[in-house]
Amino acid sequence: MTTAARRMNLGLFIRPCGHHIASWRHPRAQADAGVNFQHFVQMAEIAERGLFDMLFSADSLTAWMGGEAGIDKMHYVAWMEPWTLLSTLAAHTKRIGLVCTASTSFEQPFSIARKFASLDIISGGRAGWNVVTSGNETEALNFSATPHLPKVERYKRGREFLDVVRALWDSWDDDAFLRNKETGVFSDRSKMHVLNHHGDYFDVKGPLNVARSPQGQPVIVLAGASDDGRQLAAEKAEVVFTAHNVVETARTFYADVKGRMVEAGRNPDHLKILPGLSVYVAPTREEAQAKLQELQDLLHPELAVSLLSRRIGHDLSGLPLDEPLPQLPENVVISSRSDMILGWSKEGAPTLRELALRFASSRGHCTLVGTPEEVVDEMQHWFETGACDGFNVLPPFYLGGLEDFVNMVTPELQKRGLFRTEYEGSTLRDILGLPKPESRYAKG
Known about the structure:
14 helices
């Protein structure tokens, strides 16, 4: 049974034109969204009106060109850097959280700690960091000629990176800065903490030259689905974004990560697991289905195949579109989404064209098509049967897909007592129902 004490958390996965790969071609889409700041302001304002917990901006450190076959028909490959974007959106919003990606493979802990602590101060306590180790080999080539680290090594570096950042966020006690004009005492030196970290990958002295932020520490977000990713999430994360297209796999993932939290000595309620969710909603199922088909009809098959190839780590461009996918070797780079797609190919042996179009419509996330009641029925089923704590919503196109969700799905969720009717508190931690972390230097 759902109670007022447990309600869904909803993130909004922002993207220039939408999450369907053909979204930029939609008649109501803003084709220049990647360079149109006011478009993102509208997006944020609608999301805040819809009482979303957070805006979530993923990022890539390379311009994916879609393969030679799709070079002139590619989806968005260039958009504004997300930390700068969210820092500016902080001035156009009041309550919604602001979460974006930064890579542990190509950044330094001190600069990341400084940037996100600053965003937390600028926004009044609404910042979150999506921690990624970057699995794309081409990203590494934009920083040096050194090959990308193997996955196991990336996770080791990422774990130490995260620990250093969190330690730097505790450089100053909450009351360290006295700023007493009469005595001339600006800070209490005893409440400043020098880190002096010496590890396998980093040497960082500290302290951070930013005061402790309103949340104590920005919220830590992870999206890894591998065994290493799940373990890191269980030990360190406060929000996990994940991809599941059926409730059964979502339940398995949810139980696994929450179980690992218990083993790590953490309270399972201190982590919110939010699978991606793409929604096509309308007053009738037929109208909702037509919305999906309209975007599918705008999709170039060769671009869909290029996207699928990139995700599963094999070039599929030379294969016949209207024949089943042949047996492929294991993808050792990006395994979780690859396994999902290869699983689809065993469900009635769909053709490469059908697989590519299916993946391009939602990139492996759950897709719901129907009336508000039908959509919420399924969301409620996931939420109440141990599959999630809410969802990371992926509108198929902006701004229309987001408006449809806020105008039709949100009221139905509220009607059933599944979602808030007003924001709880002023920080992202308040909204998510997460505790403020105590400083590691606190005396107790």
